[in-house]
Amino acid sequence: MSLIDVHTHYVPAQWPALGWDDAPWLRVDSAREAVIMVGSTEFRRIQSNSWNHAERLAHMDSDGVDTQVVSPTPVFFGYDRSAREGARIAEVFNDAALEITAPSGGRLIPFCQVPLQDPDLACRELDRCLDNGHRGVEIGNHVGDRDLDDPGIVQFLQHCADRGAPVFVHPWGMPASPRLNRWMARWITGMPAETHLSLVAMVLGGVFDRVSDNLRICFAHGGGSFAFWLGRFENAWHQRHDLLGTSEKPPSAYVGRFSVDSVVFEPAALRLLVDTLGVDNVMVGSDYPYPLGERPVGQVVRSSDFLTPSDREKIMSGNAERFLSLPVAAQ
């Protein structure tokens, strides 16, 4: 049974100076280790499998992964910069992604990033990338205080639908506070909350009502806490329709309009996703190569005895083949 991992990241080994004091840069400590720096602050330690395709392919072989979708690391989105700077950042990292994935014989599928703060430039960069070999796009779940129902972001999502480009939504820019700055709380609580909030914005902001239903969009980390709290969301929509009646239909009606990955770490959590969102809307993801991801990739899907062989095939590869529009020859 083939396995496609729709949620992995890369960091190029080098890139030109981005031109402002607190810009991300890479402190290379050895041939195999480096640190992503934001200005003078250490953001994340990484290893060479972040940029070395041979190491990545070896790990894929050991985990039984046939194909990876390789997306940007969100710290490089640059949404807080000017539109011109954001476009330059996207171009630099998108071209680097092609260099990293090109030698893989099609096993590494690049997703681009775009200057989402400017919808026209974002559409232009998406077009350039699709023409150059990227298959889809990763976006952050917000641009400052603008969520996914912002008119400019909706314009971009419709353009993705028109171009047939799959969209992978990754949380980023989690709020900081004394309570959230301990114990990696921004990652273990903030990321799920951010994803849930943006799915709420997609529903109540009427995005699914406005964007054509051929939009293929997937949310990272199991969609955050959305599946667990869908019942509460549904109840609120019916009981306080005066405040939440901004979508044409109740929240449950939009199940099936989006997918989520399987990075939830426990069979019980995976079962909730399958039972609530449907087996056709869950795909294997790992968050490789970062330490909060799943290794071996797909182990929860493989070990979940409630899945039928057909269910397992859909989650491991069939749903991703549809999401990515993989040609028959690649199946």
Give the termini distance in whole angstroms: 11 Å
What is the number of domains?
1
Q: What is the tally of beta strands? A: 11
Gyration radius, rounded: 19 Å
Mean pLDDT, nearest integer?
94
Question: CATH class, please?
Answer: Alpha Beta
Structure summarized in a few sentences:
By secondary structure, this protein is an alpha/beta fold. It has helices spanning 53-63, 83-101, 119-132, 151-163, 185-204, 207-210, 226-239, 241-244, 267-277, 299-303, 309-324, and strands spanning 4-9, 24-28, 33-38, 41-47, 67-71, 108-112, 136-140, 167-170, 217-219, 259-261, 282-283.
Fill in the keyword field for this structure.
11 helices, single chain, lyase, 2-amino-3-carboxymuconate-6-semialdehyde decarboxylase, 331 residues, EC 4.1.1.45, eight-stranded parallel beta sheet, TIM Barrel, alpha/beta, 15% strand, zinc, three-stranded antiparallel beta sheet, globular
Q: How would you characterize this protein structure?
A:
This protein has helices at residues 53-63, 83-101, 119-132, 151-163, 185-204, 207-210, 226-239, 241-244, 267-277, 299-303, 309-324, and strands spanning 4-9, 24-28, 33-38, 41-47, 67-71, 108-112, 136-140, 167-170, 217-219, 259-261, 282-283. By secondary structure, it is α/β, with parallel strands linked by helices. A hairpin with a 2-residue loop joins β3 (33-38) and β4. α2 runs parallel beside α3 and α3 runs parallel beside α4 (151-163). The radius of gyration is 19 Å and the shape is globular.
Helices and strands in order, then pairings?
Blueprint: E1 4-9, E2 24-28, E3 33-38, E4 41-47, H1 53-63, E5 67-71, H2 83-101, E6 108-112, H3 119-132, E7 136-140, H4 151-163, E8 167-170, H5 185-204, H6 207-210, E9 217-219, H7 226-239, H8 241-244, E10 259-261, H9 267-277, E11 282-283, H10 299-303, H11 309-324
Parallel strand pairs: 1-5, 5-6, 6-7, 7-8, 8-9, 9-10, 10-11
Antiparallel strand pairs: 2-3, 3-4
